Amino acid sequence: MIDPTIIEEIKSIVTRQNVLTDEPMCDHTTFKIGGKADVFVSIINEHEILRLLELLRSRQIPFFILGNGSNILVSDEGYRGVIIEIGSAYSGVRMLDDIVIAKAGTTMAKLSHFAMENDLTGLEFASGIPGTVGGGIIMNAGAYGGEMRQITYRVKAVTPSGEVIYLSNADMEFEYRNSKAKKEGYIILQAEFRLHRGEKSVIEGIMRDLAKKRRDKQPLEFPSAGSTFKRPQGYYAGKLIADAGLKGLSVGGAQVSEKHAGFLINTGSATAADMYELINQVRTKVKEAYSVVLEPEVIFLGEF
Ligand SMILES: Cc1cc2nc3c(=O)[nH]c(=O)nc-3n(C[C@H](O)[C@H](O)[C@H](O)COP(=O)(O)OP(=O)(O)OC[C@H]3O[C@@H](n4cnc5c(N)ncnc54)[C@H](O)[C@@H]3O)c2cc1C
């Protein structure tokens, strides 16, 4: 538990009403799973985040940066520390010449719609990814042949020691669902994107087609974190899981989706322990059947 005097200190440096205690993380993750976090703070500006990080560092209080919680499984026991949400309270997108600049908490949907409204192409792939710009940059999120690395021009971040830095696309060392920022624990504040001139109606059409593909193929009616596993070299996780006969496999309220076996879904009452056990069973069975090790794409937070 966090000392109440430290909670008061946190309240004195960030917007007071944005500091919550014993906050259920199931309300902040797309899995709709997760116990309580000791403290949950929604950040509204750079000043707040820098001061908060300084305080937490000096008191050695553990913290975790949350975007939209769309790639996270939080333990049933919750999180002993401070969750710093860089989300809707820290969002906004604008254009400077041919560069689109977005605060880290901006949703990918808002960013890609902004680009479309301004006749800019390149972000269509991101319109259906339910995360923030910060989460997308960290994860090098991608879909339908697009990836954040293809369009990212520059990233503004805070290092673990509290220094604000700018990273070029090359500095970010993007990899499949990974980046230098993820490995080094940088916190993303803002990202800049270089896009190309396009035609609004064409861009809108592509976005509509991709949204339909998602609705047709993905179990969007159930809480999930999207694809639970990374794509193994030379295979598709969903196909391996389906071919191993695991569609519909359940542990408690956690289930391998019948619609898309790459998605592990919460059918309504799944605990984090159910989901974790299901993930492990799927990994074991796929390894036994095909000698392929599935690596989770989902990030685990708390004790498992
Ligand atoms: C229905 C569904 C479909 C999905 N489809 C796709 C898809 O097509 N492609 C794809 O790549 N992903 C997909 N995902 C997964 C997820 O949306 C992405 O990984 C997304 O980029 C995560 O963003 P987030 O803001 O939700 O991050 P979170 O889940 O909140 O966090 C993910 C990681 O990013 C870190 N993080 C978040 N914000 C910051 C920040 N500002 N600074 C530093 N670190 C930060 C967190 O600490 C954590 O390590 C899908 C998920 C769902 C539920």
Low-confidence parts: none
CATH class of the largest domain: Alpha Beta
**Radius of gyration over C-alpha positions, nearest whole angstrom:** 20 Å
Q: Distance N terminus to C terminus?
A: 18 Å
Q: Can you tell me the overall shape?
A: globular
Tally of domains: 3
Strands ordered across the widest β-sheet: 6-7-13-11-12
Number of helices: 8
What structural class is derived from the secondary structure elements? alpha+beta
Largest sheet: 5 strands, antiparallel
What's the number of extended β-strand segments? Answer: 19
Mean of residue pLDDT values: 97
CATH architecture of the largest domain: 2-Layer Sandwich
Report helical residue fraction. 25-40%
Strand content: 25-35%
Oligomer: single chain
Q: Predict the CATH topology of the largest domain.
A: Uridine Diphospho-n-acetylenolpyruvylglucosamine Reductase, domain 3
Give an overview in words.
This protein is of the alpha+beta class. It has three domains: 85 residues, Uridine Diphospho-n-acetylenolpyruvylglucosamine Reductase, domain 2; 112 residues, Uridine Diphospho-n-acetylenolpyruvylglucosamine Reductase, domain 3; 83 residues, Alpha-Beta Complex (Uridine Diphospho-n-acetylenolpyruvylglucosamine Reductase, domain 1), CATH 3.90.78.10. It contains eight helices and 19 strands. The strands form six sheets. A five-stranded antiparallel β-sheet has the order 6-7-13-11-12, covered by helices on one side. β16 and β17 form a beta hairpin. The longest helix is centred in the C-terminal third of the chain and has 19 residues. The protein is globular and about 55 Å long. It starts with a helix and ends with a strand. The structure holds flavin-adenine dinucleotide (FAD). Flavin-adenine dinucleotide binds next to β3, α4, β9, β13 and β15.
